[in-house]
Amino acid sequence: MRLSRYFLPVLKENPAEAQIVSHRYMLRAGMIKQQAAGIYSWLPLGYRVLRRIEQIVHEEQQRAGHIPLLMPTLQPADLWRESGRYDDYGQEMLRIKDRHDRDMLYGPTNEEMITDIFRAHVGSYKDLPLTLYHIQWKFRDEVRPRFGVMRGREFLMKDGYNFDVDRDAALHAYNRHMVSYLRSYERMGLTAIPMRAASGPIGGDNTHEFLVLANTGESEVFYDDRVTALKLGARDIDYDDRGQVAAVCEEFTTLYARTDETHDAALFDQIPEEHRKVGRGIEVGQIFYFGTKYSESMGATVVTADGSRVPVEMGSHGIGVSRLLGAIIEASHDDKGIIWPEGVTPFPVGIVNLKQGDGSTDLACEGIYKGLAAKGLEALYDDRDERAGAKFATMDLIGLPWRITVGPRGLAAGKVELTCRRTGTSEEMSPEAAVARVA
Ligand code: ATP
Ligand code: MG
Ligand code: MG
Ligand code: MG
């Protein structure tokens, strides 16, 4: 992408409405624009990151055997009357009437609708296990939308729902979700700690939230800091192997890690003092096992091997896709701007032309741009007629992992400069070597 032809409305000034760094940088880097409280347009740069996060979520869900579909954003109120949640949900639910005076709502979550799909088409244990998920916009009329996309009213969520014949199979689905979530967050360059949580309006008693530690987080968290060193890494996981998947979950949930809702001071005090930590965290996901709460009220049953009919065992599992942009920036930035982890960066590398219009510099930049493209990497090429300082400031702000700087002086010696955004270190090398290093 050539910056001269792109749409990157960078702001020079700090927007007054932004209280936290991720919100500030997302506005300044031209990633989002607020359209109403808690409702945003995703400008091209922000949209690219959003799509990359979605892609990781899709890949990891499907790796775990979960099946994508797409449900609508608008739902009929009648489904929610069946489960009893239409009245319970309260003011967070945006209620709408259509022209025929029918009660509709903008979905804050989809347990009812997925249960309706299941009961219409599945009736036998032979069709289980089944986990369906989608990535779709949700609306919650939050009392205090704030911090940009971190607490929006309209936000993008991955929500998945498992259907199983018995409790053990449903707990295996729960565990599969935990492991696939850990993998997803790691690919995004995040450490998200599973913490025992309270269930809220979804119901059920088996639930974990995934928290990214950040002092701007809204949840108070209590943990043994050895939990932050746990990594899934590149290990091979067989998602059908109940024992293996359960062992990973145990590894990640044995050390103490809880939010204030489930915090137990007596247990916490047993942690050696040097490892006992109190901090704040951003909730980037949550998994629930709730058994037959919805299947019973909505009549979603299956016939078992012995011919009896039982309500199907369920759970639901969410990832805050749009919130993750904020969480990643909170966890990875400096005073110049964002530092994107490689897994989610909008472009893998930027090219800065120090003397636009100079024949040999332009030619060298074009060569690098095409060389990267040949290796499957789309660079963001700053080909504008701008001062070097402004170009560097933009690149630092938008936080691409690598920058290749090309100018007449270096080229005279056959060199360009390769700079790593995270470490700030620069190295001179030939254009070919720079392309090879990035790729
Ligand atoms: P919170 O405690 O932050 O209000 P929640 O517990 O109500 O979140 P869930 O129902 O667990 O949210 O939804 C799954 C995920 O969706 C959350 O873990 C979070 O990452 C994301 N999410 C929830 N509400 C919002 C919001 N208003 N804006 C952006 N993301 C959200
Ligand atoms: Mg909430
Ligand atoms: Mg919560
Ligand atoms: Mg939650």
General description of the model:
A hairpin with a 5-residue loop joins strand 22 and strand 23. The strands form 6 sheets. Strands 3, 7, 8, 9, 10, 11, 12, 13 and 16 form a 9-stranded mixed sheet that branches. It contains 14 helices and 23 strands. The chain is an alpha+beta fold and 439 residues long. The chain has helices at residues 21-28, 44-63, 77-83, 85-88, 111-121, 167-187, 242-253, 265-268, 293-298, 321-331, 359-374, 388-398, 408-412, 431-438, and strands at residues 32-36, 39-42, 67-68, 74-76, 94-97, 103-106, 130-139, 154-164, 192-196, 206-213, 219-224, 257-259, 276-291, 301-303, 309-311, 313-320, 333-334, 337-338, 349-353, 380-382, 402-406, 416-420, 426-429. 33% of the residues lie in helices and 28% in strands. Bound molecules: adenosine-5'-triphosphate and magnesium ion (3 copies). One magnesium ion binds at residues 209, 283, 286.
Quick tags:
single chain, 439 residues, alpha+beta, five-stranded mixed β-sheet, 23 strands, globular, binds adenosine-5'-triphosphate, binds magnesium ion
- Distinct small-molecule ligands in the complex: adenosine-5'-triphosphate, magnesium ion
Instruction: Please tally the β strands and state the result.
Output: 23
Biggest beta-sheet profile:
9 strands, mixed
Q: Give the overall silhouette.
A: globular
Task: Tell me the distance between the termini.
Answer: 17 Å
> What percent of the residues sit in helical stretches (DSSP H or I)?
25-40%
The low-confidence runs, each spanning 5 or more residues with pLDDT under 50, are none
- Name the average pLDDT: 96
Main location: cytoplasm
Subunit structure: Homodimer.
Catalytic activity: tRNA(Pro) + L-proline + ATP = L-prolyl-tRNA(Pro) + AMP + diphosphate
GO molecular function: ATP binding; proline-tRNA ligase activity
